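Lab notebook page, bench 4
Experiment: in silico fold of construct C2
Operator: M.H.
Input chain length: 771 residues
Purpose: comparison with the prior construct
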Amino acid sequence: MKQLKQGLRGLAHGALVSSLLAVLPAWAVDPFVLRDIRVEGLQRVEPGTVFGSLPFRIGETYNDDKGASAIRALFGLGLFSDVRLQVSGDELVVIVEERPSVADVSFSGISEFDNETLRKAMREVGLSEGRPFDRGLADRAEQELKRQYINKSLYAVQVVTTVTPMERNRVNVNFSVVEGDIAKIKDIRIVGNQAYSESTLRGLFDLDTGGWMSWYTKSDRYTRAKLNADIESLRSYYLSRGYLEFRIDSTQVAISPDKSEITITINVSEGKRFVVSSLRLAGDYLGREDEFRKLIRFDAGEPYNSVHVADTIKAFTDHFGEFGYAFARVDAVPDIDRDNGRVAFVLQADPSRRAYVRRINIEGNLRTRDEVIRREFRQFESAWYDSDRIKLSRDRVDRLGFFTEVRIDTQEVPNAPDQVDLNIKVVEKPTGNVSVGFGYSQSEKLALLAGIQQENVFGSGNYLGLNVNTSSYNRQIVLSSVDPYFTQDGVSRSLDIYYKTTRPLLAQGGDYSLVTPGASVRFGVPFTETDTVYFGVGVESTRIKAGTQLPVAYQEYADVFGTSSTSVPFTIGWTRDKRDSALVPTDGRYQRFNSELGLAGDTRYVKANYQIQQYWPLNRQFTLAVNGEVGWGKGLGGRPFPLFKNFYGGGLGSVRGFDQGTLGGTSTLVDDASKTVYIGGSKSVVLNTELLMPFPGAGNDRTLRLFGFVDVGNVYTDDQKLSLSDLRASAGIGVSWISPIGPLRFALAKPIRKKAGDKMQAIQFQIGTSF
């Protein structure tokens, strides 16, 4: 018997195996025809896996080269720690030693992470239950574990890996971790700045040396990603203020010997401040130079601003795209006069060739149906490429809310220079939600909230939800369904079935209530890409359930119209939302109009309200926000406006500093004429102005913000006229926090215009409210 190879234990790379074989001519065998192949040493691996990897079969000629290739192929499987080939006559014996498999991966001494997060990180490097194990894999896993801790500024972490052999050639792998203390930023230095102070530049950074809110913001924990983002903010600050040749010379991050403190030093060269001396167009502009000139975002005589230049290039490229030129190229070529600090720009354009879209391909929608995505597209197949329509299509798909990522890539079609394919890639997110929680406000006290919602039922894009609220003053159960494409033209349909028990907010309490079961249907018609008009009709019954401290006004209404009344409200509404964020807006406008017409049933009335919100970003940290709302109601056919449709004012969402729901009309009680309760009114006016700013110590964190405010407003009854002299006003400060259990707002307000008898409430807070 001749041995071709023995003792190549632990070699994982075929190239190294080949090199060793090349220097072992004494083991060479003469070529022969294989009569049989046997495999020895298998425990878990199937024999077919080995035979399938061999580059020869029975009946073929075997030689040394094929033997070397077989060894490389078997080691390449990653399943074996040793592979040997033995030749006996015209038989070949493949002897393998399997790598042990991982029985369990465990961690000890961890507090910064949960086990599942670290197990996921281990799986990404190949270490998980059932996978083959070797020491190299354990080393990679250990380095990955340390990297996870370093990302949390725990540079002093120590990891000890223990591998325990088990029966059936298995091992348990345990990582014992000593986390150590968090390394915090001791100092951030910017060297080379002259035009702006170091404190001004450091104010641009999210990273800082810490403050009393660092436990929340974690801004004093260094990460490379955060530092890179801050450096880009610094570069953008200079480039947008005329410093065309600004550069970052170097960045040094030094850590103390005990790995507890970090010092960051950034060296910069500002260069000269440049002013744009002139600009001109060059190249082919499709004979539309005047149209393109209107898109220029900067002008001669202004300081150089990289943002304006980039916006101009993008506007030019997008405008070319509107005419089908998908491959247009626009360059802003500078001609720098360093002696005089001036720069001239030539906007060089090459539209290249016009193209049309051959196909639109969708990837990543494992659950959502293709049609749900395609019906949002405004760019069609076999139509000319249009960048505006493609961007609009992408935004519409993103606004569905079904995906964490939406990306559209343009791909040239081989051998067809005038065609492109659009590949839309989406990453789906879970759209079902089961929630159990609570809300709290001083007025409504504790409210238990429960709900189940599915925003994408069976991948159809439809919404189905059931919500329950157990508030002291507003108890309700609502079943809702929304079909966003009830018709192919994009008309939506909403169905609601509800049962509500409400009790208007009183000064002295009381246990009477209004019980309102009902149902409604509403259709939304998209008139433009940003405007939707809603039409609907409903039917509801409202019963005044008698109890203690029933207002006289409700008793008088019941005496005339009965304790129970049925109404058939027709609704008309309109919305337009151009805010940059629905949760934490800093720019844009939101408008909403809703109206009800009670033209059938026991009630006759009209009710309407209009709301507008406007946000202006004063700079990166400060935002000015204004919210205005007007409500109006009127009884029709000689009937009064139904009391249970009244508006209420005061408190959060209205005029802060006044007790919740206490602005407007009043009524005495049936059982105690000496007491007064608040019943709202048929007309309402509210104007809120807020200046939002960073919370002290929280840096640029937008989830926790401080705001100052001024509120003006009031609620008027049917027999009152809108009068500026009756308006109430307040001012104060507050805190807005996007907490894990929902938006929370806390306000400290002082009335600056009030009337005798008004009820005040200086401190107000609520979970689950907005502006």
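Observations: Residues 306-322 form the longest helix (17 residues). The longest strand covers residues 513-526.
Next step: discuss at group meeting.
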